[in-house]
Amino acid sequence: MTKGYGQMSITVRRALRTALASCLGVVLAAAALQGPAAAAPRDAGPPAEDPFYKPPVPLPPGRSGDVIRSRPAVFTVDPFGKAPFEGVRSWQVLYRSENVHGAPIAVSGIVLVPKRPWTGGGERPLVSYAVGTRGLGDACAPSYTLTQGLDYEALMIIDALNKGWAVAVTDMEGLGTPGGHTYEVGRSQGKAVLNMARAARRLPAAGLGGSPVAIWGYSQGGTSAGWAAQLAGPYAPDLPVRGVFAGGVPADLRAVADGLDGSLFVALMFMAAVGFDSAYPGLNLEGYLNDAGRALLRDAREMCLTSVDGASTLLTTAFRRIGDYTTTNPLDDPKWRRALDANRLGGTAPKAPVLQTHAVHDQIIPFGQAETLRRTWCAKGANVTWKTYEFAEHATGMVWSHPDAMRFITDRFAGKPVRGNCPA
């Protein structure tokens, strides 16, 4: 059996202070370990081959957050033997959510609950954990990778489990389930995070019916967490959201695109274009592409960053520009700008307290647009605690923010008041 809570907690603390555990910092190392694709599970195979991930058509009647189906799963940090992580029960779930147009969709995810009884006050807390960038292929779905011992955020999730909290992780729209992954479409991601929390609370075997909720996310997960924070009040008033951590937030994708164009990480901008094309079919991404762009689009649809193909895509697209792959720049088209602006954070103030963090030297997600989000939320009356990391870039920003996020969420579950540091 894999090491349990006591020993693993020490390992987690040390690893989080020394490893560059981010969606990009681990790409080359993970590719070397994985080869072209993650190893298939012994039973059902990856999501594309697993009937569990295929929703019924039409979807059964129900509410957003209702569980369509569930099954026991094995959470592991062992990529070779896949020994279960000791002391945790887990279930893969298929649940109802909504797309950006308000239409019901099925989304997959995983629910993790410590076996030991909760000894704190009230009901066992639940963290709806929004993952960072994985890729666009179904094999990248965290409900799958967390059962394969190959998930780069597993240690952070274990740290939350070691606190006795339950953790629910959504795959988001189209990652695992059929259809394109709506990468960085915040309104879809935010709903998926909230409905994942609802699904975990409605899963009878998990025993989380009365659980208070926190939301957690960094990078792409920061977008998801920020949108979940904004939507929680009007969209999910039934959820008792106590606090939100949103780190390295891509709040304004037009500003992010400007920063990524011609950079080492321009592939992330291309992925977002595919994500928006999946969410808004009228954008017609392919109509803007040249031959090189169409080839990239074809290859990217099933790509996971933590694979040989993903690492190769990052390297071969590095320092390229939009014009290298298009005949016309879609960002010059008003319909593309409207779609991006419709998913820009800051329109409403979150009701729950928010810890927002950012690395000063973030080379992927511009610092300025995150600072603008903080000022915008503050001006609307949000309770925001803003923390920056002077000697960090995007990957180390994830690591340095983790202990601060753990303390912040711990205090919110304990009912401690917090006064943010918004400018007077």
Task: Describe the SSE topology.
Layout: H1 5-18, H2 27-34, E1 67-73, E2 88-98, E3 104-114, E4 126-130, H3 142-145, H4 154-162, E5 166-170, H5 186-202, E6 213-218, H6 220-235, E7 241-247, H7 253-260, H8 266-279, H9 291-300, H10 308-317, H11 334-342, E8 354-359, H12 367-379, E9 384-389, H13 394-413
Parallel strand pairs: 4-5, 4-6, 6-7, 7-8, 8-9
Antiparallel strand pairs: 1-2, 2-3, 3-5
Structural commentary:
The chain has 424 residues and is of the alpha/beta class. It has one domain: 3-Layer(aba) Sandwich (Rossmann fold), CATH 3.40.50. The protein is 36% helix and 15% strand. It has 13 helices and 9 strands. α6 links the parallel β6 and β7. It is globular and about 60 Å long. The N terminus is likely disordered. It comes from Actinomadura hallensis.
| H-E string | HHEEEEHHEHEHEHHHHHEHEH
Largest sheet: 9 strands, mixed
CATH fourth-tier homologous superfamily: Alpha/Beta hydrolase fold, catalytic domain
Strand arrangement, major sheet = 1-2-3-5-4-6-7-8-9
CATH architecture: 3-Layer(aba) Sandwich
Return Rg in Å: 20 Å
Nearest-integer average pLDDT: 90
Give the percentage of residues in beta strands: 15-25%
Q: Regarding CATH, which class? A: Alpha Beta
Give the low-pLDDT segments. 1-41
Instruction: Tell me the total number of β-strands.
Output: 9
Percentage of residues in helical conformation: 25-40%
What is the name of the CATH topology? Rossmann fold
GO molecular function, one term: triacylglycerol lipase activity
Signal peptide: 1-39
Protein name: Secretory lipase
Keywords: Signal
